[in-house]
């Protein structure tokens, strides 16, 4: 049986077309996803950029301006590249939006913008109000959807809001001091100045906050698992005397048929798992889709998905009166069609998958591509492993049904002629 297992593995790895579709194709598709969706999440993250600060007499007359700039700057000076980088936070969570480039006049600040050494500048007027100006190229990049992959527009909007908030607070304090100076002795009033309350609050409802495009990669893993059914189809074909020359020789071999089929199933399971593991590792390390620190659970899910794919493939391979080519075509058709309803083919397919899950949960439950995709959802979205175990139970139940049917088809087969 061990020798049969090793020979079957060698035969699987010699099938070049099969290796392409099960190893190269998922990587190619994941690379395409990364090219199309890789910058979507980046466009919602804050980035730093170089800002000149005009430290003239108006600026020095208002110490609060320097305090504000120190709070939102990195303190590392200009990067000199004219390109924004990833924003950082200090201990109190204050975002570091700018790299400060010190200057003494607006004329010198304009020269810095023209030379590309700064993307904008901050200055104070005679009344102590803070103002912001940006270069034409920065404004163009901020409004250009294609060029704004570095979230420059969001960063500029946040900086503009900080400038407006500072000016409003400064005007409020000046008005209070002019009309009722003793009011500033009230601690509640003093602490309320500068405080801004938001109308929304981010609440963490899931175990991990994954990338918004991760669903497409999970659906790709579901399709990869179903395409791996062809390994099991080949394993069954090589054990049937009416479908291959190797099957004829095996039919007269002293090794029991169930051992031949068991060795073929194990070889298919191993190859399917290897295919899924390679795709998952590529998606995780190259495409940057996190697994939430539960890599061990992801490998277990790959093993369960590979077992189910081998069971489904064994059932298809055992179907009587069907040539091998038709069985492979059936595997490809099933994997492509069921992947539509698991959300692989874009936002429309995702919406369709969600609608089926809401309105016809039984159909979603019966879709193996959706259940394999759900394995990775369950790993990331839930604190408990109970949903993962339920999905595993569903896949194992479908696998048991397919294996039982396959055994019924293969048991005591007889051939009138070969």
UniProtKB/TrEMBL annotation:
Give the CC-aspect GO terms.
Answer: membrane
Positions of transmembrane segments: 20-37, 216-240, 261-284, 296-318, 330-348, 388-410
Task: List the InterPro entries.
Answer: ABC-2_transporter, ABC2_TM
Give the residues annotated as coiled coil.
Answer: none
Source domain of life is Bacteria
GO terms for MF: ABC-type transporter activity
One Pfam family recorded for the sequence: ABC2_membrane_3
Keyword terms: Membrane, Transmembrane, Transmembrane helix
Q: Where in the cell is it found?
A: Membrane
Protein's UniProt name: Multidrug ABC transporter permease
Q: What species does this protein belong to?
A: Bifidobacterium moukalabense DSM 27321
Lineage, opening ranks? Bacteria, Bacillati, Actinomycetota, Actinomycetes, Bifidobacteriales
């Amino acid at each position: 049986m061990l020798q049969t297992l090793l020979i079957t593995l060698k035969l699987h790895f010699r099938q070049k077309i099969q290796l392409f579709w099960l190893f190269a194709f998922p990587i190619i598709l994941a690379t395409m996803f990364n090219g199309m969706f890789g910058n979507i999440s980046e466009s919602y993250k804050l980035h730093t950029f170089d800002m000149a600060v005009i430290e003239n007499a108006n600026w020095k007359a208002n110490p609060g301006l320097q305090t504000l700039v120190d709070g939102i700057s990195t303190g590392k000076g200009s990067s000199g590249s004219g390109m924004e980088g990833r924003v950082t936070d200090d201990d109190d969570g204050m975002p570091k939006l700018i790299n400060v480039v010190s200057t003494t006049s607006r004329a010198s600040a304009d020269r810095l913008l023209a030379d590309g050494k700064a993307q904008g500048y901050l200055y104070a007027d005679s009344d102590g109000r803070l103002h912001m100006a940006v270069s034409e190229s920065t404004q163009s990049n901020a409004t250009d959807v294609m060029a704004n992959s570095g979230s420059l527009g969001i960063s500029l909007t946040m900086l503009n809001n900080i400038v407006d908030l500072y000016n409003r607070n400064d005007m409020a304090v000046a008005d209070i001091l002019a009309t009722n100076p003793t009011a500033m002795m009230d601690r509640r009033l003093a602490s309320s100045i500068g405080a801004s309350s938001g109308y929304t609050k981010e609440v963490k409802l899931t175990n991990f906050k994954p990338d918004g495009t991760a669903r497409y990669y999970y659906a790709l893993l579901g399709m990869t698992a179903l395409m791996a059914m062809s390994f099991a189809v080949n394993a069954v074909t090589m054990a049937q005397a009416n479908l291959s020359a190797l099957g004829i020789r095996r039919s007269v071999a002293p090794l029991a048929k169930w051992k031949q089929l068991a060795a073929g199933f194990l070889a298919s399971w191993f190859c399917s798992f290897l295919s899924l593991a390679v795709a998952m590792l590529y998606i995780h390390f190259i495409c940057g889709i996190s697994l939430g620190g539960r890599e061990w659970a992801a490998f277990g899910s790959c093993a369960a998905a590979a077992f189910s794919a081998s069971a489904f493939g064994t059932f298809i391979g055992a179907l009587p009166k069907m040539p091998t080519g038709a069985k492979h075509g059936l595997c490809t058709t099933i994997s492509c069609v069921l992947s539509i309803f698991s959300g692989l083919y874009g936002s429309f397919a995702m919406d369709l998958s969600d609608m089926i899950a809401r309105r016809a949960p039984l159909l979603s439950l019966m879709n193996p591509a959706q259940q394999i995709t759900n394995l990775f959802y369950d790993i990331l979205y839930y604190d408990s492993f109970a949903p993962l175990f339920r999905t595993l139970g569903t896949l194992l139940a479908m696998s048991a049904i397919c294996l039982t049917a396959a055994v019924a088809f293969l048991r005591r087969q007889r051939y009138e002629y070969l």
